[in-house]
Amino acid sequence: MKVIALGTGPFAVPTLRRLHDDPQHEVLLVVTRPPRGRRAAIAPMALAAQELELPLWQPDTVNEDEAHQRLKSLDAQLMVVCDYGEILKPAALECTSLGGVNLHGSLLPKYRGAAPVQWAVFNGDQETGNTVIQMTPGLDAGPILGVQRTPIDPHETAGELEERLAEMGATLVEEVIAQLATDSTSPVEQDSSKKSKAPRLAKEHGLIDWSQSAQQIHNQVRALQPWPRAYTHWEADGDDPQRLIVHRTRFPEADSGDSATPSSADSSEPGTITSAEDSLIVATGEGVLELLEVQPAGKRAMPAGDFLRGNRLKPGDSLS
Question: Which residues form the Formyl transferase N-terminal domain (predicted)?
């Protein structure tokens, strides 16, 4: 099938590679969002297109007449959209004979929006997956053409889960395209009463509230990896509070084989350090949580043990 691939972020790259490698498909053009700002990095999808020696186009928008003319001139059958960053209007979707399909990293209608994987981890979901939909002008609202399901490991970060879903999703896209080629799809309308939103995360989402439970904070740390990352503050020798990024956590029971279950409630105030010798353990609103890897302001990420050896923290000190 002759396709136009629209994508910008890393979630779209495995699908592009799969379409390129499949002799049944021809990728006529790769469309990505243009870099923003002088220091903007090249988009992962753009890098992949260059590596695969595919035609690359980075328009400001695909929702203008000039863009429509270029897309129509390719005489493509289908747009394959994933992690692109712009909602396509009806006129754009009409530029190919079969319209567009979109790969989305959630079990729609749950988590419509830019950060479905992160919110699934943040909320402590035990299962997620991918959905391919027939595109409509609404945000992730089109009829469902295919679904994949997968459990979420209790220690899996959003970055790790997203990589796994991206690889899975490439297979799902191929299956849906094969059905479209034989006119054998069975679209299922989404139940809008069950929809939920997944807006893009901001740095403010990273501030740890130690009055939350150990489980909630553990989920928060996982969800904000690799960006924007969870953080707290600590006071060093009477200085002003300093930012401390928290990269990895676990429940102290991990050594006894129960790494997925928080400890029982601790009597200390939330945020109080209960152990600062070989491990850094902090009381929360419900249970305690061990910080495994941290990053002080202006320094590299390091195991908590290394951080403790270079800083005078003791039980009874607090993280704010």
Answer: 1-176
